[in-house]
Amino acid sequence: MAIDDVAPVPPDTLGLHSTTGPQWAPAMLAHVDRLLVEQAHLEKKAAAGALAFLFRLPAEAESQRQLSALAREELVHFERTLRLLQARGVPFGPVPPCDYAERLKAGAVRTMPARLVDELVVAALIEARSCERMQLLALALRGSEPVVAAFYADLVEAEARHEGIYLELASAQAPAAAVAARWHVLAAHEAAVLRGLPCSPHLHGGAVEAASTREPG
Ligand SMILES: [Fe+2]
Ligand SMILES: [Fe+2]
């Protein structure tokens, strides 16, 4: 699918509390190979995260089916990323760690069952931020790296959908108003985490925010 055929996901619809500024994607263009290696790791972690929820959530058929399909889709993304690396002659190997997910998860409450809801909301936030950043990469790369641009553009739709699935799963564990309240708190935390990270070659690295950044309130 060509990047021009992909309907962009408006950042406002993702519900994030900050918008990545226009300087971020151009700063990543010199690090495409490293970002793709990291992408493979992120897809593998996303599959593992979905599998972990599959065992922690109540055994209810529809949610189990959703999580199983989600885990499989993340593994398909993992394999697709490995194929792209191979085609570019880039070896798959370790990448420097990024503190984003760990710092984000530190914002979750510690006690069950509220923790499970928070962890689902955090998973939704990671999907939302991935969606935002991959869309920016797809647009920034379409002139110089059309194959990679199309790859990221294909993933954008899936990330937005995954955000919705995790929010739906959270809403099955707690009243909608409670989930919305936790989203508000954790989305503000997510924006603060990104503000505290350096701008480095990571999908979830820090970046100067766009002027339209929402103020948590
Ligand atoms: Fe994915
Ligand atoms: Fe995903």
Structure in words:
The chain is mostly helical and 217 residues long. It has helices at residues 11-14, 24-28, 32-56, 61-88, 100-105, 114-141, 146-171, 176-196. It starts with 10 loop residues before the first helix and ends in a 21-residue tail after the last helix. 37% of the residues are buried. The model has no long low-confidence stretch (mean pLDDT 92). One fe (ii) ion binds at residues 43, 46, 74, 77, 155, 158.
Q: Unreliable stretches, pLDDT < 50, 5 or more residues?
A: none
Structure annotation, total helices: 8
Q: What average pLDDT do the residues reach?
A: 92
**Share in β-strands:** under 5%
Helix content: 55-70%
Short description:
The protein has 217 residues and is mostly helical. It contains 8 helices and no strands.
Set down the secondary structure blueprint.
Elements: H1 11-14, H2 24-28, H3 32-56, H4 61-88, H5 100-105, H6 114-141, H7 146-171, H8 176-196
Helix pairs in contact: 3-4, 4-7, 6-7, 6-8
One fe (ii) ion is lined by residues 43, 46, 74, 77, 155, 158.
Features:
single chain; 217 residues; mainly alpha; 8 helices; 66% helix; binds fe (ii) ion
